[in-house]
Amino acid sequence: MPSIAELEEARRALEAPLFADMAGDLAVSFEFFPPKSEKMDQQLWDAVTALAPLSPEFVSVTYGAGGSTRERTHATVARIAAETDIPAAAHLTCVAASKREIDDIARSYWEAGVRHIVALRGDMPEMGAVFEAHPDGYRNAADLVAGLKRVAPFELSVAAYPECHPDSAHPQADIDNLKAKIDAGATRAISQFFFSPEAFFRFRDRAAAAGIETEIIPGILPVSNVAQTRKFAGQCGAEIPRWMDQLFEGLDDRPAARQLVAATIAAELCRRLYAGGVRHFHFYTLNQAELAYAICHLLGVRPKLDVRLEAAA
Fold this sequence. Notes:
CATH topology: TIM Barrel
Number of strands: 8
Helix content: 40-55%
Oligomer: single chain
Largest sheet: 8 strands, parallel, barrel
Shape: globular
């Protein structure tokens, strides 16, 4: 049941200009992926430099099953932890590794000063392959959360799926899986991206009805590449509304116009989520800062002057 404050906020969102008088009373966090080249490394640090003054609650770095990807993730997270004041979170999955290997990786993070892990089941390296646990590995994300808690007192974020995960038999299975992860010791949930605020609110209501009181942060994907977004959506079960597809038609060769449309769509989604009581947004940046920065600005988030960022010096 919406509170009186939320109803008033919803009325303001409908009657006032969409981003008028935004208070900026919200938290943001950002996701990056580890660079594969020197050029990509510079792009990543340009993004970190641009977004750090917004004082994110944390930033996270994605992770793949291969050894070199693991090393890049570790190096990126360790550098963020060492050279900035931003709390850095490392993604860790169950894919293609034994419990001992994963525990060793987690210990190395703890020794590097990393206190936050995003614990995920993960997907197989082969596109479309059905997940298969390592014979000596963690069976799923809930099992991984429990194992990481035994390694060290990490802060643990897990995934949530407002729209049915492709591997789930039905939406309730996603709720049951989330509850298992929370019961195993997860700190919070970060949702997969979505483009309908109603999808998030329905999921949040179902989670509350199941007794889940942990914070569920909406994951926001500004659409910088339409074809890439369609691919991502197919992999995770997210729906791209027809109206959104239509807005990007004819913009394939107009990157600047595409970015303006992307920022507008994502900012409006955040504004409607804000009207429903959301006060923390997690942005999937794809190592591009400008879209996330623009959306945060529209939401009233402004730079802080006391942010340490040695890498930018």
